[in-house]
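Session log. Operator J.P. requested a structure for one protein chain; no other inputs attached. Running the standard single-chain path with token output.
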Amino acid sequence: MIALQDRPTDQEAWIEQTFDCPAVRNGGILRTSAHAIKAGAGMDRFVAEVHRRGFRALENNGHVVVFCNRKSVAILRPKDVSAA
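Structure written below.
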């Protein structure tokens, strides 16, 4: 029998399910919404998991994109536009 404290919380189950997909396993991209994250595990827990895995995440207009690898991320800009 599993003790109550040994069972994953709903938040932990959500994290496990979210990060258990081919995109994550293969170093691809995970896309979700900030609303889904807040409802599922909470933004702090989600960001902690992204960091624990060494991934990078970006948020824009309620959309969250996670780069599921340890490579650097660059924002692409035309050469004639200054960084603002």
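Operator note: The chain has one domain: 9-67.
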